[in-house]
């Protein structure tokens, strides 16, 4: 399991860091805010300033956050490099992510940065070319995640492999693992055999259930006439 940070500092002098500081300077000063940064921006700020992106994706419990971004002139209609206000639901990653974030206080705003492993797991849901690039950059700079680390973390996040709702496209995590593995680790992977099945076996054992699928064995025996 990944517990230690893979980076020792947060660089807010990167393009993403500068636009966040610019935005923070426009926020009301009489109240505190918490803003979580996800997407590629945390990797730029924590790992490699050369990993660029068209936007800075954030979410916040503050309902007016999108209005504040618009008032600051930093939404996508007003600038090429913009802040995208999203929902926490858009950050589909390990349920463990909140326990291993880094944060920094800038004026009256707490900026929260998920661990790179949680950023990468979230990127596996889509796995565009820029998402593959994020894996390459993080591994080149930190040596992580190793193959064993990523498999273990995906086992702990096994519910992400459940089928998406019909209206959600491009979130086939198992297929995206099959695409990623040869590019990053140089081999094919069977996500069901190496990630999903072991995780479900551990879960069943925790419930005190048998890890063997006796119902399936009975069905197979009936089919064969046994």
Keywords:
5 strands; 226 residues; alpha/beta; 9 helices
List the helices and strands and how they pair.
Blueprint: H1 15-24, E1 33-38, H2 41-46, E2 55-59, H3 65-71, E3 82-85, E4 102-106, E5 109-113, H4 116-123, H5 129-142, H6 147-156, H7 173-184, H8 191-206, H9 214-224
Parallel strand pairs: 1-5, 2-3
Antiparallel strand pairs: 1-2, 4-5
Describe what you observe in this structure.
- By secondary structure, the chain is α/β, with parallel strands linked by helices.
- It has a domain at 15-144.
- Helices cover 42% and strands 11% of the residues.
- A five-stranded mixed sheet has the order 3-2-1-5-4.
- The chain is elongated and about 70 Å long.
- The termini are far apart.
- The model has no long low-confidence stretch (mean pLDDT 91).
Largest beta sheet, briefly?
5 strands, mixed
Q: Specify the structural class.
A: alpha/beta
The dominant shape is elongated
Low-confidence regions: none
SS summary, helix count: 9
| Head-to-tail CA distance between termini | 43 Å
Question: How many beta-strand runs?
Answer: 5
The whole-number mean of residue pLDDT values reads 91
Arrangement of strands in the largest sheet: 3-2-1-5-4
Helix content: 40-55%
The whole-angstrom Rg is 20 Å
**In sequence order, what are the helices and strands, one letter per element?**
HEHEHEEEHHHHHH
Strand content: 5-15%
Brief write-up:
This protein is α/β, with parallel strands linked by helices and 226 residues long. 42% of the residues lie in helices and 11% in strands.
């Amino acid at each position: 399991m990944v517990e230690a940070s893979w980076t020792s500092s947060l660089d807010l002098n990167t393009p993403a860091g500068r636009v966040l500081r610019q935005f923070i300077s426009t926020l009301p000063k009489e109240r505190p805010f918490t803003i979580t940064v996800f997407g590629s921006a945390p990797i730029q700020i924590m790992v490699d300033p050369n990993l660029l992106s068209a936007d800075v994706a954030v979410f916040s419990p503050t309902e007016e956050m999108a209005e504040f971004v618009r008032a600051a002139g930093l939404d996508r209609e007003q600038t090429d490099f913009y802040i995208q206000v999203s929902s926490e639901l858009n950050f589909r990653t390990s349920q463990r992510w909140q326990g291993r974030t880094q944060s920094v206080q800038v004026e009256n705003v707490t900026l929260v940065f998920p661990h790179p492993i949680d950023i990468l797991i979230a990127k596996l849901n889509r796995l565009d070319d820029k998402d593959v690039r994020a894996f390459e950059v993080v591994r080149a700079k930190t040596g992580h995640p190793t193959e064993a680390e990523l498999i273990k973390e995906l086992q702990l996040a096994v519910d992400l492999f459940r089928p998406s709702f019909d209206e959600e496209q491009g979130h086939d995590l198992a297929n995206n693992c099959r695409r990623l593995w040869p590019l990053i680790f140089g081999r094919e992977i069977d996500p069901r055999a190496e990630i999903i099945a072991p995780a479900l076996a551990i879960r069943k054992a925790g419930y005190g259930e048998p890890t063997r699928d006796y119902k399936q064995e009975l069905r197979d025996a009936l089919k064969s006439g046994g």
